[in-house]
Amino acid sequence: MAVRVFLLAAALLAVSCFHATASDTSLLQDFCVVDKLRVNGFPCKDANDVVAEDFFFSDLHMAGGNTTNKQGSAVTPVNVAQIAGLNTMGITLARMDYAPFGQNPPHTHPRGTEILTVLEGSLYVGFVTSNPDNKLLAKVLNKGDVFVFPEGLIHFQFNYGTKNAVALAALSSQNPGAFNVDKMTVDRIQGQF
């Protein structure tokens, strides 16, 4: 019996330690504005030197980037590189512009859940569950609609319309990561069905 209790306690400790290292750090102070003059990670700027501009970004009203690339989309990130005050806050924002038939191809964010809002146009969006069924959950979104992509699951967005589309995405991590799934991998997975 004592061995079982010990093993259970050890397992719970191991799981809780793993979870702690797999998430953004918690705030230890009100904010930690990045001192961009430093090179090792993101150290904090002296609180006396913090200004309102450290928490400000003004370009999301403009179309971001060129959508004449092979994906037909452009992403304007708003993360700690654009807003130094986002450091340690655990959030990221992105504007996504889609040309007609443009896409944000299958990808995953290993460290963050994404919530997407359509601002203009319509998007066909979805994600694939990781359970044994690998079920596709997809929906057509119109202006004002919101969809959530759970952390770590492969997801996509596609503008099936003949007009441009714009969406705003928020992610639950200051560094959610992004891993694109290439066509060869998609073909290999599809070949198993």
Estimate the helix proportion, in percent. 10-25%
Write out the strand line-up for the largest beta sheet, numbering strands in chain order.
1-2-9-4-7
What's the number of helices? 2
CATH topology of the domain at 70-79 and 89-190: Jelly Rolls
What is the CATH level 1 assignment of the domain at 70-79 and 89-190?
Answer: Mainly Beta
Structural write-up:
The chain is an alpha+beta fold and 193 residues long. The chain has a domain at 70-79 and 89-190: Jelly Rolls (Sandwich), CATH 2.60.120. It contains 2 helices and 10 strands. Strands 1-2-9-4-7 form a 5-stranded antiparallel sheet, with no helix packed on it. Strands 6-5-8-3-10 form a 5-stranded antiparallel sheet, with no helix packed on it. The longest helix has 20 residues, at 2-21. It starts with a helix and ends with a helix. The mean pLDDT is 84.
Strand and helix layout:
Layout: H1 2-21, E1 73-78, E2 92-98, E3 103-108, E4 114-120, E5 123-128, E6 136-141, E7 146-149, E8 155-158, E9 165-171, E10 179-180, H2 183-190
Antiparallel strand pairs: 1-2, 2-9, 3-8, 3-10, 4-7, 4-9, 5-6, 5-8
Binding site for Mn(2+): 107, 109, 114, 155
Disulfide bonds: 32-44
Subcellular location: Secreted, Extracellular space, Apoplast
